[in-house]
Specification:
4 copies of one chain form a homotetramer.
Chain A (H helix, E strand, L loop, with lengths): L11 H15 L12 H9 L2 H25 L7 H14 L2 H11 L5 H28 L10 H25 L3 H18 L3
Chain lengths: 200, 200, 200, 200
């Protein structure tokens, strides 16, 4: 029943935990069950929902990558402060938009307004990336918040990786105005790149 | 597999954790994807949902502030008791209404019944604030529940900050009956104030 | 990155944590925002949803009580086993029905079929109570699962309290067939009783 | 406020925790409250939803079994690496499809297209099982990731049990094409088998 150490602000652990819970909730699937009569009509209806499955897979895996990066970042943090809390809250707020923009992209991916859906989706990911990079830049300029033994090669590796991810988002968002499929292709490339780029 | 220390009631850690999970769930977004034909119609439809985005942003950030304050409060708690559990449950219950009242405010913010939605929203926040302040008042009158080394300047700082937040809610709720936009403006001011008022 | 102690089964901590997450999700509110034109129509529509608010409050607080009892029970557990895991899973499964049966009771509380909704609601709570009591009975018959220093007065106090809660559920369920309002009244009594019966 | 040990990647604990939160969210119930007039019509309508209840029970218990196995597996892990994170993310992604495929099976179980719903449901469980077994195979081929004192009899017991579960899924999926009821029967058998097969 006792709380052994008195801590004046929120610990990195607590912040990571709360972020985890919010991230876990954002990666739920929301696809409507089609209401048809025959088996063949059901197969067609399910196949017709391919934009929903594709959008879900992209969003789940991009959010998974974001979670891994967020967690890795938190392993370097010794203590939190007000600015860090505010930046993290803004990062989570934009991340919480993902179910909505995923549904939007899915709804229009095979329709004339595909570019609008893909652009809004890309913009949301880009802004998530902006806040993620802002947290990282803030931390690297405030080494007092980081653990003393942080390896600078790791920091540089992460900086480079996060920038590449961010450039992907900006590019995919810009190209969505030309063609939504190109931006979807770039998201898939980003996910494959991320899956192989983590150092063990 | 072993539970090293036998604790008769719920620890502050557990209570904070459960509260975190409930709070994380309350800050999810629930906006319907518009169903239209053309790209320009989609842009108009998305723009027409601005009251939903604004309400989401306000609710997410106010809940974020509530989470930070709740966590800070728990860093002062040494042990829990029955009254604290009951007050915290009532605090969470009113907080769990936020998705509903956010949807209500969003639906009517640009319609004739805007004041009704904004008033119900403000009342909910006010009651959340009442229970938050009741927890704090109860704790400050039962120092046996607090950690021994608690800094009284911190306590006074928090008391002042929580009261200012509460006055904002009461004011915003009262003014919503005159004009819903004024109360929305006050919520935005409260969020900006909160973002800068945390001590590092 | 290391996992210091090798544990063959799930720890009481982990089981409590997973249960917490499931319980937190079951106490969310799902009330539809009314779609009307004028302010007075909105006030009437909101007032007309009173059965939803009442059902939400009852479910939130009963689930809150269940959470507190579940947590208190887990403070006595030294280790878990297969039977305990199965009983806890069945307890959570019935608890996960609460949002559905709450919506059902709310929909019909002011309608001719009120007794059906209240009976299904009461039956669900009763079965939740059956599994809760089964866990407790199983634990008290397998002291090897409990911590060595468990105070038998505490155990008896909890046994008595859990039985009283269970009798309330059975009674409320049976009386719902006569009159739904009586069973709602009993739930409110149970909540008030629970709020005052925890030992600090 | 301090983070005592610097860890370069995500700890098994953190990964287990995040997985817990995602799993907890996937086992929520989503059944519509029927809208009818009389008590007898409500009883009929509720009885008519039996496919929803059956599908919910199967999904809740299968997910519960998956959670227990996932947790048991994590008690053997000493550290994580990139491949493990990717495999776990893909496992969770397919698990996150369960609410959708449960709704699909429930909607069509008593209709002509029952086989389609049951096949899609079985395929999803089978792929969840594929990734679960891939994680286990990867771990057993990379003993550096496991704790040093791991008992090889336990490992063999788990391998056998996971394979049996997987064969059940493949069989149920294949047989769903002949008759959806047979596959439902096999899921129930699998759950009963799992409930009794855990070693204490």
């Amino acid at each position: 029943m006792s709380n052994p150490h008195h801590e004046k602000l929120i610990t990195p652990e607590r912040l990571a935990f709360f972020s985890d819970a919010v991230i876990a909730i954002t990666i739920t699937l929301d696809i409507k069950v089609p209401k048809v009569e025959t088996a063949s009509a059901l197969i067609s209806a399910l196949a017709g929902q391919w934009t929903n499955y594709l959008s879900f897979v992209i969003s789940f895996l991009i959010t998974g990558v974001a979670w891994m990066n967020h967690h890795r970042m938190f392993t370097y943090i010794r203590k939190t402060n007000n600015t860090l809390l505010v930046l993290n809250t803004l990062f989570l707020m934009w991340l919480a938009l993902i179910p909505f923009v995923t549904g939007l992209m899915a709804e229009y991916l095979a329709k004339p307004a595909a570019s609008v859906g893909a652009f809004v989706y890309g913009m949301t990911l880009t802004i998530v990336g902006v806040f993620f990079n802002l947290i990282w830049i803030y931390l690297s300029r405030n080494p007092g918040l980081l653990l003393p033994k942080v390896d600078m090669r790791e920091i540089r590796f992460m900086k480079r990786q996060y920038s590449i991810g961010f450039i992907f988002y900006v590019l995919a968002t810009a190209l969505s105005l030309l063609n939504a499929s190109i931006s979807v292709g770039l998201y898939i490339l980003l996910i494959i790149y991320s899956a192989f780029s983590f150092k063990d």
